[in-house]
Amino acid sequence: MTTSMQEYPKTWKKTFISLWLGCFITGLGFSMTMPFMPLYMETIDHFSNAQLNFYSGLAFSVTYLAQAIVSPYWGSLADRKGRKLMCLRASGVMTFTIALVGLAHNVWTIIILRLIQGAFSGYINNATAFMAGETPRQRSGSVMSNMMTATVSGNLLGPIFGGALAGAFGYRIPFFITGFLMAIAFLLTLFNTKEHFTPVPKREMKPMKELFAQVPNLKLIIVMFISTMTINASLLSISPIVSLLVKQLMHGQGNVSLVSGIIAAAPGFGTLLVAKKVGDLIDKIGPQKVLTVGMIASVIIFIPMFFVSSPLWLGILRFIFGIANAALMPAVQTVITVNVPPEAFGRIFSYNQSFQASGGVIGPLLGSSVSSIFGYQAVFLFTALFIGVDLCLVMWARKISDK
């Protein structure tokens, strides 16, 4: 159920801060470890470039594949038991699975642990649904953007922090530290959040068909699901090969781990710079207009990435992409929040998470496959095309929703 800040001024603020910190830690932990996964795998065994591309892409994608499959189940459970329990489930399991990756001595052990992590993860999406249910709708845009700054801030600092740790102490240490940080997120969520939620008995839950029938513009929501998938795929298409691309651009010289971390974090700087203004803009002119402009800018920015010849220019362009990206996910989440019944937030957001997870499968596999065939930088052209197709869908959805 939706509450107002006037009803719960103190608990609302405490819950928001705790969930913000939990999302920050989750983003920090993920980005501390994932940009260096190919380099970590290289220390475990000897692989050809094609094998390394395949295994690193699989390690990225298998987590999101598991998420896509199980998210509807967790969403249904969230609507019956609450989103707080789902946040605890995700942070608790991730505490152990991420730490155990640091102990792995076989690439398949890493992949299996990543599969388990994906099946039980979803902290950020459930925290977002948690806050969506606690936030007045007239504040949805700014709150969704502020929640996004948590993840972005973590993604921003994680690669730099992880790169420094990996360079100084080896690739295993960031996994252990991430596990410890996720334990902190678990405790913050357990003791510092309060959910104003009335459990719905399973026999009283409306079927999804009936809930979807209550949505005024179902086609718009479906397009938002597809947009979520596209946005996440575009963000993660370079993830499996970012360190390998940087290594190529640097000709194998210098601190590749640290530079890879900075390149991976560059979009976060841009997003963090404008996130608050974008949130206010969403509330002022509407999320669909902001989403359209952000997608157009993203397509334009990806094209020159194909021609970069130095890490510096790659970092600058990814920074600019981060500015455009600040408009994307908060706008999509705001469209969903204001167009679905509150009692269906858990299940609707779980479907959205499934599409987001599907993007997590498509993006890394796209990146690893395209890079194996056409080279690392060709990934940017394929990503631009991917966003362009979705842009056409978004403009079509805007047209039918304005009627």
Structure, described:
The structure is a single chain. With 403 residues, the chain is mostly helical. The model is unreliable at 1-9 (pLDDT under 50). The protein is 81% helix and 0% strand. The chain has one domain: Growth Hormone, Chain: A. The chain starts with 8 loop residues before the first helix and ends with a helix. The protein is built from 17 helices and no strands. It is globular, with a radius of gyration of 20 Å. The protein has helices at 9-33, 37-44, 49-81, 83-101, 107-120, 123-134, 140-169, 173-192, 208-214, 218-236, 242-249, 256-285, 287-305, 311-325, 328-339, 345-374, 378-401. The longest helix has 33 residues, at 49-81.
CATH superfamily: MFS general substrate transporter like domains
Global structural class: mainly alpha
Count of discrete structural domains: 1
Q: Helix segment count?
A: 17
H/E element order = HHHHHHHHHHHHHHHHH
* Share of residues in helices: over 70%
Largest sheet: none
C-alpha termini separation: 29 Å
Assign an overall shape.
Answer: globular
Count all strands and give the number.
0
**What CATH first level would be assigned?**
Mainly Alpha
Mean pLDDT: 81
Strand content: under 5%
What is the radius of gyration?
Answer: 20 Å
List segments where confidence is low: pLDDT < 50 over at least 5 consecutive residues.
Answer: 1-9
GO cellular component, one term: plasma membrane
Main location: membrane
Subcellular location: Cell membrane
InterPro entries: MFS, MFS_dom, MFS_trans_sf, Tet-R_TetA/multi-R_MdtG-like
Structure, briefly:
This protein is 81% helix and 0% strand. With 403 residues, it is mostly helical.
